[in-house]
Design goal:
With 123 residues, the chain is an alpha/beta fold. Helix content is 49%, strand content 21%. It has helices spanning 10-19, 38-45, 54-57, 61-71, 86-95, 103-106, 110-122; strands at 2-6, 27-32, 49-53, 76-81, 99-102. The relative contact order is 0.18.
């Protein structure tokens, strides 16, 4: 399963990539820090899963998520935020995220979510 990580923080990208290091069936194909190259990177790497920092997307984050899901309906999408307000979670899940996590409190749940998506994807 190919994973693309998009986060404005290089440290977060590196931490996420390291979390998948022991999973031989999961390959991190790209780590993106710039929202302007996300679409180009998706076309280039054809990931199965995208882990995306919603803060990197700015105010148009939900429309970007919605458009991704419409164009690439088979893409599996995990969104991340620094904001733990429940309205944000609902907003991104309603826009098309398969999972939405708060980086401060739920960061360690991300590998399990990818594994769960991998099982769904295979089935």
């Amino acid at each position: 399963m190919k994973v693309l990580i998009g986060d404005r923080s290089e440290l977060i990208c590196e931490r996420l990539s390291a979390m998948f290091g022991s999973h031989t069936d999961i390959e991190v194909v790209a780590k993106i820090n710039d929202a302007d190259v996300i679409n180009e990177s998706i076309k280039k790497f054809s990931p199965d899963v995208i882990i995306l920092d919603t803060d990197m997307l700015g105010n148009s984050g939900t429309s970007i998520i919605s458009n991704l899901k419409k164009k690439l309906c088979s893409i599996l999408l995990i969104t991340l935020t620094d904001n733990s307000i429940s309205q944000y979670r609902s907003r991104y899940l309603n826009a098309g995220s398969d999972y939405h996590f708060d980086k401060a409190y739920e960061f360690n749940k991300i590998p399990d979510a990818v594994h769960s998506l991998k099982i769904q994807y295979a089935g």
